[in-house]
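S1.2 Input.
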Amino acid sequence: MERWQKIERVPAPALIPIYGALSGMRVLMTGSIVAAPFAASLLAEFGAEVIHVERPKIGDPYREQAPVVKRGDRRISAGWIQEGRNKLSLTLEINMKIPESKEIFLSLIKNCDVWLENMVWTEKLGITEEMLFEVNPKLVIAHISGFGRPQFGGVPEECNRPSYDPIGQAEGGYMFVNGFPEPMPPSHAATFINDYMTAMFAVNGILMGYIHAQKTGQGQAIDVAQIEAMSKVLNDTFVQYFMLNKIRQRNGNKVAIFQPGNLFKTKDNKYLYIGAYGPVVYGRFIKALGLDLEKYSHEACGNSPEAINSELGLELNQITIDWVAARDAEEALRYLLSHKVPCGIVRNVAELAASEHYQKRGNFVEYLDETLGEPVKAFGFTPKMSVTPGKVWRGAPTLGQDTEAILTKLLGYSENEIKAFREKQVI
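S1.3 Output.
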């Protein structure tokens, strides 16, 4: 009888405090930059006990991603400070050909509700879904990859392609519609937006699978592809093509189907976005600028591509450009808001950090980073929860910080066994 067959599951949480709506869920995460770790972070912020598996001595490359924060001989990625918090770090060489690794990994699978991975080639490591469901029939398996897994369909050669965030944006259709029209090239969205969108779809799938497993005792696999995450957020782009034979094009900052819906430069060299969709809000905007609504009617100037590109529509656009250019950003913002016209100033991080609204929303949290050994400040939680709010119970861990605690408290290994694992470089 193998070890995983003998051990009893230790209820979660066993190694972290009780907090949040997901307390009682345990997640095993074997992945690196960026989608899988971010998905795990979202779960960990609301109470899931997340075990982040890292390679011995090497760790997750996320720890070294530039820019890094340095304190003497200690250094850690700013990204790791933000996203590594609330996780347990276990070092383990994942390879089912190594008996000790297989023993530890399958014992962890028995103790977890979710296995989250973005390693792609798991079969090469000897890991199969059939093996894992035998160990834990209620397991939710979340696969994250660039192009999806063949078991869910697709061209096998495409499924095997490596990918990073901008590749997903390009191949999923998002990059084509992002940026300014030709002759300008397409533009990718910054801050790994593809990875973050993919992570959020993964979390959604994990929670659905988890609820189903708790109700029925039946686990399942979830397949999240970067390209499909991007295609999913293209709004009506595919319907436009299938039903109207239209290929959506880039329009820069200008909304193609109504106005005002654009970014305008202010007198103090800032940028103000004004959006007034629909006849009622459009009417407020026209009134705010002191214009004649009968002349610059919604039908004639604001409610369709034809209207906004008509002679009168283009005239209204130029009036708007000139009106904003004659005013400072804050002045224009306050005036338009007094008329209930939706608008917003393009803010940088320094402005957001100083924002009274952000501060009173509790958007910034301070905690002790385990690597630096000092307090750090980072962005807090979304969404806000009235009964089960998010929490930082600990800063991002050092490499392998929780290995011994996990192996002893969850899996029942002795001190001598753990020492032997270290000598064999399994952990």
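S1.4 Remarks. The chain has a mean pLDDT of 96.
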